Amino acid sequence: MTTASATTTEDGAYWEVEPSAREDRERIRARIGSLHCSLCTGTIEKAVGQHPGVDKVAVSLTHEQALIEYDPTKARPEQLLQTLKDIGYTVWDPRKTRTFEDEEADLVRERNRLIAASILSVVAIPLMFVELFGATGWSWLPWVLGGAAVVAVFGLAWHILVMAFQSLRRGILNQHVMVEATSFAGLAGGIYGLTAAPADFPTGGFFAVAVLAENYHIFSEWLSLIVRTRSSQSVKRLLDLQPDTARVVTDDGEREIPISQVNVGDEVRVRPGERIPVDGKVVSGHSAVDESLVTGEPVPVEKNEGKTVVGGSINGFGTLAVEVTAVGEESFLAQVVRHVEDARALKPGILHLVDRVLRIYAPAVLLLALGAFALWTIAPWITSGEPDVGRAVFAALSVLVMGYPCAVGIAAPLAIVRGAGAAANEGILMRTGEAFQAFRQVRTMVLDKTGTLTEGRFTMREVAPVDSDPAEVLSLAAAAEAHSEHPLARAIVDAALDHGVDVPDSDDFEALSGRGVRARVAGNQVLVGSPTFLKASGIGIGALDDRIGELESRGRTVVLVARNRAIAGAMALGDEVRPDARGAIAALKEQGIAPLLVTGDNARAAERVAAALGISEVRAGVLPDGKAEIVRELQKRGRVAMVGDGINDAPALMQADVGIAMGAGTDIAIESSDIIIMGNDLDSLLVALDISSRSYRTTRQNVWLAFLFNGIGVPLATTGLVYPVWAMLAMIASVTAVFANSLWGRLSLLTEAIRSVGKRPATAASLRGRTHADR
Known about the structure:
This protein is α+β, with helices and mostly antiparallel strands.
């Protein structure tokens, strides 16, 4: 099997070659620029898929990425990537995210292009009407409009022309071909008017249609670029978890060097509170390390000599010396990035009714326009011996104008705007409209445990004394743990303070890594720690054996307390199940959605939560890539939603048909999701399901409205009796009908959507703390 490799060409194009699931296949991963709509993804899949040796092409529009699986004996990466460039798309490094400044520069460039095209339209429209109403003394007018059309088609929209040509030569009919067919028909009609048509021929109108067609398409490109640019980049947030430098120990002392220069076998020193820069093994020191990015669990893990640590996790109270075991692409963070990117590119495409129709509609309109041209060229020639070229061009152009899929193209977006507004009123933030509408088709929902079904923080659940009262046991434990930085110690101290229990001073404190603590409290020798620790210290715990077993079977973390070598009692700490979780799970099951609990926690804790909530299927001890794999496996049976809140959930959130993040979760979980529950209310899942269904119904209605106009208008246009201006007005009427159906009574939603353009995306920090009134 081929190992992963990277290549950069002289012109800066970059790709990665990876092993495929099949031994005799390889895979290219590439980032693609200039994607605008679902027809672009179809164009790429067809163009690259035509190449010999290519088995599969998966393109993600939202994340501008492609995975191409191919036979290396029949195809080369350079050839496949050249095909992408030939059809007008750009390719860049899939490992890197572009800076905010670079993205803004692209927006400025496209905005300037749009402004120039709009100026041409503002000039062309009134001149077109001047000609239409028969003004005299304006013989120069058609030439001005002709010049504007030439600038629009061959200047501002040259890139569209190139993409249309490259698509045509591969036998692909898409939106680029359609807009250029409209423009060239307008140019042809205008040239005919200048050279051979009678004096009353609407020459300027033909040229104006070419300008307007290009202007509309440039506007759609700009709008698409805004949507993609304002989408947050979760990969950047993942990579930002890794420090830029590491403190490497050498014979001459410590030296801080760039992370790229660190090698396997180096020794790195990590001080308290710092992020661990590399994957490695502890060679000296001890500390509690927050590894929630791996496990999703809130409790830091004790680390001492011989234990492994993960780059990107946060060191606690102690200093660690770590021997590097993995760097670069082999590190944990790089692997998580890889899994997120896989999920992005391989995320199953949910083809809307609109997308399916458009792929048939564009070729059909083009063929009908050619048929109208042929009809009015051949039929008059047969009957009168002279072709009616003017009427033929007129008919073809009117068909293209009347059939341009403007209303169809906005049918889904406007329905989604309405759905997004309704969702926002309920504390639900929709990030991708496609997945939002697909939510109604979900049949399996995978739910993370900690922070999603539970509160996500440890609390004292029970104190079981042997011969004393619970307050005395808690007092002894809190006094001994008062000097410890361990999160379980903090939970014990917090419980004592919350219950008004006196916490005396202690001395001779000693922390025993991974086991517990010793301290002297009011003259008594006190031990606090795990059952294993107390047994190893010679403390008899037989009086609590049954109780310990019962507590652990309920998924509790058990901490024992001994005083003067005699067992004093046990404490059970646990993570609270969310109060709304059971009702939400029951309602999901009534909707025909099967819940599945998945967690990195131990099986007993997971099964306890599942039993409390009525969930029958549980997957425990699962790492990030395992969660994504579980989602992939479930997708073979139908649509899958994933609900999570941690870094370890990000790959699964991206892989799922619908990724749902709780608003109090980590930034990476939120940025990897399609839907965000801002108020952390699980009942909002049911609200989102209802809005998803209603939004899809509106989309279907919009499509039928659009085709009602086009279905009547296009046949009329084939007669050659519909002036292009009236065809344009009919298209405007179609758009207005769709607009009214989508936003009737909700114009404020459109205002909010317009105001949101240009704002940076919401992050976890901005979502946390939001009240219902804010929403």
